[in-house]
Amino acid sequence: MMKQSAASAWKDWLAEYGPRLLLFARGWSNTREDAEDLVQEAIIRMWNHQADKGYVPPDLPLVFSTIRFCGLNLHRSEKRRRKREESVIYLNDFHDVWLDPAMEEDEEALILRGAVKKLSDKLREVVTMKIWGGLTFQQISEALAISPNTAASRYRYALEQLGNELSRLKEVRHG
Amino acid sequence: MANHEAVEAALARLVPVALSQGAQSEIEAIIDELAADAPRVERHAGRIVSGWAWMAGRPAWWRRTGMGIGVAAALTGGIWLAGNGTPEKHRSVEVASVDFSDGVVLVGESDRVSSMIDIGWSEDYDGAAMQTMHLSVVGENSFLDEETGIVMQVSEPREEFILMPVSTF
């Protein structure tokens, strides 16, 4: 692939998949800015990784996996920084949106968005990969180094929790 | 309790937020920079051809040398993310004269660890505690130009992270 056409292909690829990558990266960071940095770091790593393949844009499962690796590194460095600055209290900055704010008019969507944020990391990453990444359980299992059955179980368990949360909050709001 | 299909349908109506304009522009600029720096390497029916056009017009031995460097760069690029071996101060592999192109022969390759830093614990995909080592490695390939007898050494520095399971606490 010619260098310029490779760059063009990667930009098209970024335009299509960037939001999904950002959503996944958001689960591994405390702020939107950190999540965008994770996406950027993963893309640089992917570019080098794809050199042997003629710089074609990478497969989505591999990018998810790389973001996760970068997220682990970020998490580790954050922990070390917190140890150094024990007097500072860090709060999660969850004011930025995870999913499209245009859906805020829709009560169900709003509740679900909050419920997705509250899922445990392990459950949320499977839901993100399945719903917004469009990956199969086989691909998810490869990206997360777990069995396909485990991926499917986590997904079902997450849907169960989301469904329960949806029902509970609707009952609270409507009596 | 809502059934799974209903939850899935509701989730599918939520749309991930786009990257901010600043982040999008920054990443696109990085892609342009990477594309400008990358040597063009193309695969044709099992052989690797260097795309460095500036080789044209150079002497034959010079072009072959460039070809060898291109092959070395492609090889080292291919193992860039393969940092999962055990830490070794120096890993040397003698190669039985692998011939990559006409007149240029790979006669030796080695990996030299220039620095090794323990950067503490991290978690693997399953949340298991792992000891993480950061290695700065220099891969060195030696090529012999059979026509001139010149031996060239191509060095390729890279960074590696090695995760080792922590079994005692």
Short description, anyone?
The complex is a heterodimer of chains A (175) and B (169). With 175 residues, chain A is mainly α.
Poorly predicted regions of chain B: 40-99
Shape of chain A: globular
Q: Give the terminus-to-terminus CA distance of chain B.
A: 44 Å
Q: State which percent range the strand residues of chain A make up.
A: under 5%
Outline of chain B = extended
Q: Which pair of chains has the greatest number of interface residues, and how are they split between the two chains? A: A-B, 62 and 49 residues
Write the element-wise H/E pattern of chain B from the N-terminal end onward: HHEEHEEEEE
Sheet-strand content of chain B, in percent, reads 35-45%
* Secondary structure: helix percent of chain B: 25-40%
Residue-averaged pLDDT of chain B, rounded? 67
Helix content of chain A: over 70%
Can you count the helices of chain A? 7
Radius of gyration of chain B (CA) equals 23 Å
**Structural class, from helix and strand content of chain B?**
alpha+beta
Beta strands of chain A, count:
0
Number of domains of chain A: 2
Main β-sheet of chain A, in a few words?
A: none
Largest sheet of chain B: 5 strands, antiparallel
Q: Given the helix and strand composition of chain A, which structural class is it?
A: mainly alpha
Number of DSSP-assigned strands of chain B:
7
Oligomer: heterodimer
Tell me what the structure shows.
The complex is a heterodimer of chains A (175) and B (169). Chain A has 2 domains: 2-94; 101-174, Arc Repressor Mutant, subunit A (Orthogonal Bundle). Chain A is 72% helix and 0% strand. Chain A is globular. The longest helix of chain A is centred in the C-terminal third of the chain and has 27 residues, at 148-174. With 175 residues, chain A is an all-alpha fold. Chain A has helices at 3-26, 32-49, 60-84, 107-118, 121-132, 137-144, 148-174. Chain A has 7 helices and no strands. With 169 residues, chain B is α+β, with helices and mostly antiparallel strands. Chain B is built from 3 helices and 7 strands; from the N terminus they run H-H-E-E-H-E-E-E-E-E. In chain B, the strands form 2 sheets. In chain B, strands 3, 4, 5, 6 and 7 form a 5-stranded antiparallel β-sheet that branches. A two-stranded antiparallel ribbon of chain B has the order 1-2. Chains A and B meet through helix 1, helix 2, helix 3, helix 4 and helix 5 of A and helix 1, helix 2, strand 1, helix 3 and strand 5 of B.
